[in-house]
Amino acid sequence: MIFSKTLTxxxxxxxxxxxxxxxxxxxxxxxxxxxxxxTQVKQGLPYYNAFTQKYLNxxxxxxxxESDVLKLWQGLGYYSRARNLHATAKxxxxxxxxxxxxxxxxxxxxxxIGDYTASAMASICFNEATAVVDGNVxxxxxxxxxxxxxxxxxxxxxxxxxxxxxxxxxxNPAEFNQAIMEFGARQCKPQSPxxxxxxxxxxxxxxxxxxxxxxxxxxxxAQAKKKYFNFLVFISEDGKTILEKRKTKGIWQNxxxxxxxxxxxxxxxxxxxxxxxxxxxxKEESFELSLYNKEPIVHKLSHxxxxxxxxxxxxxxxxxxxxxxxxxxxxxxxxxxxxxxxAFNF
Length: 346
Prior knowledge:
- It comes from Flaviramulus multivorans.
- Adenine glycosylase active on G-A mispairs. MutY also corrects error-prone DNA synthesis past GO lesions which are due to the oxidatively damaged form of guanine: 7,8-dihydro-8-oxoguanine (8-oxo-dGTP).
- Its cofactor is [4Fe-4S] cluster.
- By secondary structure, the chain is an alpha+beta fold.
- The protein has 14 helices and 9 strands.
- The chain has helices at residues 2-14, 26-35, 41-54, 58-63, 66-73, 80-95, 104-107, 115-126, 135-145, 154-167, 173-186, 205-208, 269-276, 335-344; strands spanning 225-236, 240-241, 244-245, 256-257, 260-263, 288-291, 297-300, 304-315, 323-324.
- Strands 1, 5, 6, 7 and 8 form a 5-stranded mixed β-sheet that branches. A two-stranded antiparallel sheet has the order 2-9. The chain has a two-stranded antiparallel sheet with strand order 3-4.
- Helix 9 (135-145) crosses helix 11 (173-186).
- The longest helix has 16 residues, at 80-95.
């Protein structure tokens, strides 16, 4: 009880003014929670504003084209979140008459909604006493109580969920949940938190035992795989290029990219030109080939590192149907491609 009161008192004096804290509308809370997954507030806020301004309610989002949703999401990463967002909007609009379920158990059934988001929505929108556990909560609880159970283990999931539920202010779950997340984000930061002004500094195990840097504990994930991407950036004399839609399942599903050739390692220009002879797009076309970037661009994802080269292919005409380079910004692309397009300035 003392922990809860201290936490909510800190929150009342330190909480940020954010648009989703001014409402209990499930649509807006849902949007904010999905956008803020693995995303800091300062990065997610412009996206939240963009979505709520373009799609005023779940019906408008449901009726949008997926390509438009992906384009608006561009730059946030983890594009499966955007695809699930759109799928859930259509389900809620068409099957539930626009009404989100009013409890944790049924919210959990919706696509893209896990324990954290269901708990946040249930507590904030419907005052259900169910505790949230996210990265911020893991950090606060592990440090305060000195818990060494790995947070990315099944045992850790249960230990921290049970503890958060035990500490939860059952009379005001929404404020408690928002308070502990805010506390983790602003006070009990991952790196170099200012423990001198922390209201828990006399009772925090990690602080008293000098273990702030050691907690929370996380099992090291497998080493990321290396992949070698070579994008062909066609430019024809009439100002067109080629973008292809990724059909295969994966993080970039349904996003657009330049024609891609994967190799087993970083490849030099002379060897790559030979490699292109077997590629359908360049079999019978005369072209000029040049490497845009001097060093491979390394794009790091959670499970793989992409060593990327962009090859500029100047040709009289395209080997297949293309698009005007003036319209290239209308297409939803991965951030890796988007950064190149911005830098290249077609």
